[in-house]
Specification:
about 15% strand; Glutaredoxin; about 40% helix; alpha/beta; two-stranded antiparallel sheet
Length: about 190
Amino acid sequence: MSILLFIIMLLNGKVAFAQRNAYEEALSKFTGEHKYDIEKPGALDGVPAPEFSGQPLEGKPVSLARHKGKVVVLNFWFIACKPCKLEVRPLNEIVAKFKKKDVVFLSIARETKQDLLQYLKDNKFDFKTIADPKSALGGNVFHILGYPTTIVIDRTGKIRYYCLGGKIDENAVRADFEKKLIPVIEKYIN
């Protein structure tokens, strides 16, 4: 009887493993001592992004499927994160630069809706913002390792940019975005 139970458990484990999406499968390479290899340029390039959906503070619900055919820029952050705050003005500049292009800018904040509404009254962020207080998107869907994290998804749903962590100076953030993030967006909107 115990052998039969073991085989059933083993088969159930294989079924669960087979149900992981391509993104989770790609992330499985970045564990243990290789955890931060995800920061290397191109580490996730071409990996299909996981399907996600959320309700921004304002406007209609968003999802990857709803924005198919557009470039999607995701920024994961939280209010107490100083490097996250340093990215806001440079990210707002990028939103303005691509305002008339097929680019969707979404921020996913590890905060309650009430806290975000209060914070954003005095701190302008031009991304559509989704409250994610329990990290349903950040933790369960995208498995974010740290904050801030920025991801660019191309028109076909593949990840083309993944940047974990931030800088300690706004000008360094701006320079890094000009060197790395903006060229990726430009490449995939054309």
